[in-house]
Amino acid sequence: MKKMMMLIAAVALAASACQKVEPLTKDSQQIVYVTADAGIHSFGVTADGEWSVVMDEEAKRWCEFEGPSYGSGQGAFSVKYDANLFEGVRRGLRRQAKFTVLTDDKFTSVTILFRQSGLAPHFEFRQDTYEIDANVTETAVAINSNLSVYEAPQIEYSISGAWITGSELSRNGSEVKVFCSENKSGKERTAQIRISYTDCWGETFTDTATISQSDKVQTPEVTE
User: Fold this and answer.
1) Is there a single domain that holds both residue 77 and residue 164?
2) What residues make up the domain containing 68?
3) Whole-angstrom distance, CA of residue 20 vs CA of residue 91
4) C-alpha distances in Å from residue 202, one per residue of 62, 94, 97, 137, 148
5) Which helix (H) or strand (E) holds 156?
6) How far apart are CA 7 and CA 5, in angstroms?
7) Radius of gyration of the chain (CA)
8) What CATH number is attached to the domain comprising 200?
9) What mean pLDDT is predicted for residues 1-30?
10) How far apart are the first and last CA of the chain?
11) d(CA 174, CA 171)
12) Per-residue pLDDT reduced to its tens digit, 154-201
């Protein structure tokens, strides 16, 4: 099978300076960054034959092709993208779309990671330590974050402590519900809970907190 060579360059429409174009072969990848504002970005392609471009599902949420997404030999395609706003009001989290340029024999491909600026994830427990009484068997560990319901399911968490019997992350990622046994050991015991989130740019954010279960039951004060 003949191996087809492909050259691809990402060029902003308003750019006037020449860019050096490096040859990219099978499974090559490049990263393109754009601002949070709406715009159009153009990509120049040179291939030994026909080529076409496909976008992933995430790209379809905020990008569309401006003109043909295919060509032959030397050509170009353009991507029109929306402003990065959450619910059309405030700045959204930084995001990434993926475009794949394929030659007609599907042997050579170039992956473009199209990254749009936005807010970095804010992700932490509301407290460093959560204290519960000996007879408590369920508690909620609150999380402060700016993740939406789309990103929240990607939160990962782990809890150490043999006395922890189960746990459950809320759908919107605002808390981890922790289930445990009553403390009849005669001494205080602790468990560590860790949360992590890796965003679409590949950066991982983590935080830890301690759950402390007393060996005593608080007696409510009665006032007359």
Assistant:
1) no
2) 6-116
3) 33
4) 20, 11, 13, 37, 18
5) strand 156-160
6) 7
7) 26
8) 2.60.40.10
9) 49
10) 92
11) 8
12) 899 999 999 999 999 998 899 999 999 999 999 999 999 999 999 999
